[in-house]
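During the reporting period the student researcher (J.K.) took over the structure-prediction task from the postdoctoral fellow and processed the backlog of single-chain submissions. One of the processed entries is reproduced below for the supervisory committee.
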Amino acid sequence: MINKHKNQSVEIEFWDIEPEVAPELEESDIPGVYFNEFREYVDEEGNVLSPSDLDAIRYKDDYEDDYYR
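J.K. obtained the following structure tokens:
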């Protein structure tokens, strides 16, 4: 049985793997924040942003004023 396995040819298939296509992002009303295909708010890398993340980005100037007071 061992000799038989040594003499058998091994067939290997190579598949062409296409690189993942990045989804197109649509600009939102907030600078640096975009909409993905599901109309979710995402950053430039496509990470979904939570409502608190959006508030922190949208009102960042307001938060800076509170920090320095």
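The committee noted the following: The CA atoms of residues 4 and 10 lie 12 Å apart.
J.K. will present the remaining backlog at the next meeting.
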